[in-house]
Write a structure and sequence with these properties.
This protein is mainly alpha-helical. It has a domain of 75 residues: Zinc/RING finger domain, C3HC4 (zinc finger) (Herpes Virus-1), CATH 3.30.40. The chain contains six helices and three strands, in the order H-E-E-H-E-H-H-H-H. The C terminus is likely disordered. Keywords: Metal-binding, Zinc, Zinc-finger. GO terms for molecular function: zinc ion binding. InterPro entries: RING1A/B (IPR044592), Znf_RING (IPR001841), Znf_RING/FYVE/PHD (IPR013083), Znf_RING_CS (IPR017907).
């Protein structure tokens, strides 16, 4: 990965779960994606055991190995990670305090729409699926006859269906000698 730009560096060092700088790095052996230790452990407990980024199956928590080299790299780039996280938190709080009003407007317009449509909503009756009823149990004689019929169908030679072999006539088997001669001339021709 090219770390030429600050944005590319930030992307490579950000945990995709908490969207903060990775702390106590854990790398998934199967796909080599990196996350914060706490984030990946919580994700694996709450969700299926898979990588949150690429959905590769993670066999166990032991597959998430500690990556001290990446932690050392982060410390050499950013310095103290606790101070960095505190600065990120402060920046986030400032953004929220500045933009809180825009979210209030969204909530107010939703409430206005809800009030305007109150009483006009059509109720659609729920459709229930009809359950198929189980057939009545067979008598021992009928059960025996049904088993015999199934066995006969399995053992019976299959007839070629029109359209499967390209036409209505069955395909010729190269090992099949063909029809047997029934006349005296035909029988003699095959023997001599």
């Amino acid at each position: 990965m090219d770390f030429g730009s600050e944005a590319a560096l930030r992307e490579a060092t950000t945990c995709t779960i908490c969207l903060s700088t990775i702390q106590n790095t854990r790398a998934v052996k199967e796909c080599l994606h990196r996350f914060c230790r706490e984030c990946i452990e919580v994700a694996m407990r709450q969700n299926r055991p898979e990588c949150p980024l690429c959905k590769t199956r993670i066999p166990s928590r032991r597959s998430c190995k500690e990556d001290k080299a990446f932690d050392a790299l982060l410390e050499s780039i950013y310095g103290d990670l606790d101070q960095l996280r505190a600065a990120e938190r402060k920046k986030s709080e400032e953004w929220w305090s500045k933009n809180k009003g825009s979210f209030k407007h969204i909530g107010e317009s939703f409430l206005k729409q809800k009030e305007a449509t109150r009483g006009r909503r059509a109720t659609v009756p729920k459709r229930t699926k009809k359950r198929r009823e189980a057939p009545p149990p067979l008598s021992p004689q009928d059960a025996k006859a049904a088993r015999a019929a199934r066995a006969a169908r399995r053992l019976a030679p299959r007839k070629p269906s029109p359209g499967r072999s390209g036409g209505t006539s069955p395909t010729k088997n190269p090992k099949d000698p063909g029809p047997i001669a029934t006349t005296a001339e035909g029988a003699g021709a095959d023997l001599y």
